[in-house]
Amino acid sequence: MSAAPIPERPPDLSAAVARQLEQWISEQQLPKGAQLPTEKLLCEKFGVSRAVIREAISRLKADGCVTTRQGSGAYVAAPPGHGSFRLLHGLLPSATIPTDEISDVFELRCLVETGAAERAALRRTPADLARMREALARMDEALAAGSDAVGDDDAFHVAIAAATQNPHIERFQAFMGRQFSDSRAPTWSGEGHRSGRARQAQAEHARIFDAIACGDADAARAAAQAHLVCAARRLGLDPLRWGNERLEGTQ
Amino acid sequence: MSAAPIPERPPDLSAAVARQLEQWISEQQLPKGAQLPTEKLLCEKFGVSRAVIREAISRLKADGCVTTRQGSGAYVAAPPGHGSFRLLHGLLPSATIPTDEISDVFELRCLVETGAAERAALRRTPADLARMREALARMDEALAAGSDAVGDDDAFHVAIAAATQNPHIERFQAFMGRQFSDSRAPTWSGEGHRSGRARQAQAEHARIFDAIACGDADAARAAAQAHLVCAARRLGLDPLRWGNERLEGTQ
DNA sequence: TATTCTGAAGTTGTCAGACAACTTTGCGAA
DNA sequence: TTCGCAAAGTTGTCTGACAACTTCAGAATA
């Protein structure tokens, strides 16, 4: 381990060691199965106790990056970040985040949400519809009161995903919703209420709901697509970047 | 902590403790900021040493689920899995993994891959096509040699996602591909070659490629859908579970 | 009586040593 | 040359001690 990471002494040693180890694995392009230095060597190199090394390795094990075998050693299990999908930035346009990047994330969202709406139309149960109605009702109340409904907006979309009867679609929608909560704030802010953005979004929600309630998969897909296009516009994004008129022509 | 998790003694204590703590946080619906029991209490409750508890907490810290303050305690930082999307199991049918669950993951994949194929048809560049051709050529070579092409199969799908010119779609495809590498092995194994599974998969790949090369978005979507239906069947999954004949009727 | 200050108790962070359980290596015997 | 066994090496867990920080309770002061 001639090119081993050189340690520093920040407040949380195990996190820092984990970070440096992860970086070193990436830089060395260690393949799956490559053995890491022993705990003893790492203690010497980082100048920390065995407990700190073990906690750092535990962190990397939680990330799926490293695996260990008692009596044998620690091994690279996968490249860092292998076992999960993350979005890289906050999802509100700003001077530091390229608008195109957010638009691209919107498009990924579009792939999943239009498909989910379609399937929800085919598979929704009365309980699913009740759940959507409840979220809609709460957004209606927020409209009347001029108050915040970011959480209800999200709940509405998760309820649609739940109506697909596919828990993985629901989980993915919940994940994306968490990343998008910031982007819903301008819709439901005081300014969003005054400018009519909230009212417009709610009208789009109602159209999606109606299509799903009617069991009309095509209309549900089209309504979900239209909603996303308008949502992007409300954020100042250009949905035409997603493709050409052909895809938009479905609405 | 009257309703604390009851421990067992599996081989890797810290992983098991972390899992049980995470589950308990979810079941109790502990909000962000809620304090966890002290290390001392957890040691007593789980019947393990302080080192094991600390390693388990380190795992949860790596997941972003828990944060700690020296002298104060451990706190819920976010619901488990908050900042990332993970699939929960390996993706090969087995006695311990419900087939329905894998089928559901396939459907999520279907949402993204059919949309990606559509967009690839509209946006692909000559370089994109060359990249797909290269992966196809390598799979052809593997067909001729009876050898493994799991990596090339994956590279083909990632190349399609890259042709959407949307890096997030590409990254998601790469993530899903990693989770699915096990599921491609039966196609490209010796048995897969002998039984014709590899040849069939490759024919499907060629159809997707042709549609994308022609710029025919509808055909690309249909070819991608058909490929996924057949891939599911090759794995013994029932693609009819995904919905009814209406969605399949698009092929 | 209310507020502030101080010290003790409590809690996490790190270090060190010991032993258990497992793996790898090296040497001698067949 | 191969196999078996013991020693050495390595990870997994436990225990104890001390450092660094936080919280709480009681005493002192206004």
From TrEMBL, chains A, B:
The keyword Transmembrane does not apply. Signal peptide: none annotated. It comes from the Bacteria. Keywords: DNA-binding, Transcription, Transcription regulation. Residues 11-79 form the HTH gntR-type domain. The keyword Hydrolase does not apply. InterPro entries: GntR_C, TF_FadR/GntR_C, Tscrpt_reg_HTH_GntR, WH-like_DNA-bd_sf, WH_DNA-bd_sf. This is FCD domain-containing protein.
